[in-house]
Amino acid sequence: MRRSQDRILTSHAGSLPRTERLVAANAARAAGEDVADWEQLLATEVADLVARQQEAGVDLVGDGEYGKSMTSPMDFGSWWSYIFQRTQGLSLDEGGAWVTDRHLSTPGDVRLTGFGLRRDQQAFREAYTDPTSGIFVGAPPVFPKVTGPLRYTGQEAIAADIANLRAATVDAGTADAFMTSLAPGSASRIANEHYADDSSLLEAWADVLREEYVAIIDAGLILQIDDPSIAENFDQIEPEPAIEDYLAFSRLRVEALNHALRGLPSDRIRYHLCWGSWHGPHTTDLGLRDIIGTVLQINADAITFEAANVRHEHEYRVWDDVELPEGKVLLPGVVSHATNVVEHPELVAERIVRLATRVGRENVVASTDCGLGGRVHSQIAWAKLRSLSDGAALASAELWR
């Protein structure tokens, strides 16, 4: 994994806006229609996307999660829901359950509430239930539930994703490419009617997802683990748990992830931490300071995290007190998915510099808070990536003068 040796490199958190023809093709396939030349269409779209990332100044490119179906331009969930299409042992849960009752591994039972019942949504119920608010939450979708032994069935899908990205990087003349895959802790946030306990369920998901991890690494790509659950679960526990209880709860998920990553090279793995990408107040978010020690136990040398949205931008100061372990790299979000305002390059540079002066310029790669695809309009997303690149150039001029 490249480091910022002579300038600040740039990347992003994974999802990028889908084109109109890709959204239309995904919608047709979801409706059961045959899409002529689907494989060629997807390959072409990924190749065009990689070239466009390079034009925008992105150094460490990805496939935009194009192989993870998105049937509308605005879609907050494809990063997560894709795995259910690649896993055996699931059935639709007509009750729409998001998670089931669970217990912390230390005293103090808690219940993870249903999707749409976050504590943030309870605190701002009027805003969340107002269709004119911009953060309206309608009827919850139908989620799957675990009803049998979990087994990975996505070999052909991941092979196609890998082939498309590899071909695109060859055409573009770059080897610096990454691909995302879900973490066991995030995958497990659905109802479970088969496994005896939380640990067994997490272990099963770890075994399922390891197949994707190995395939991505073996293909010579960088693996990015998408895992909002470590931070986001905190907002879905009612009542609010004590921090020490929540960390014990989270360590089970870190252990499951590390089990899935066993034997894989940590210098080719990046871990994406975020607080969920929904556009809400986020007043009940857990602080970075509370969980960074747990996150640093993950067997990944790079950490991508939200550092630009206004609920977490101040947390760069965490690195005044937390020492970045040897070999670790930070990919802070310096442009955000949470606003349509395009960040000025000088602000982007400021965000980069204040973190680089704390952890070392070679240990910072400028990135996005979260995936831009499905969160902001395509035109805005690409303007943000251009501002990201321009800001990194300004920061480089200051840091290497």
UniProtKB/TrEMBL annotation:
Q: Which GO terms describe its molecular function?
A: 5-methyltetrahydropteroyltriglutamate-homocysteine S-methyltransferase activity; zinc ion binding
One short Pfam family name for this protein?
Meth_synt_2
Q: Which UniProt keywords apply?
A: Transferase
Q: What top-level branch of life does the organism fall under?
A: Bacteria
Keyword Transferase on this protein? yes
Q: Is Chaperone there in the keyword field?
A: no
| Cobalamin-independent methionine synthase MetE C-terminal/archaeal domain: residues covered | 200-390
Gene Ontology biological process terms in this record: methionine biosynthetic process
Q: Which PANTHER family match?
A: METHIONINE SYNTHASE, SYNTHASE, VITAMIN-B12 INDEPENDENT, PUTATIVE (AFU_ORTHOLOGUE AFUA_3G12060)-RELATED
From the Swiss-Prot or TrEMBL record, give the protein name.
Answer: Putative epoxyalkane:coenzyme M transferase
The root-end lineage is: Bacteria, Bacillati, Actinomycetota, Actinomycetes, Micrococcales
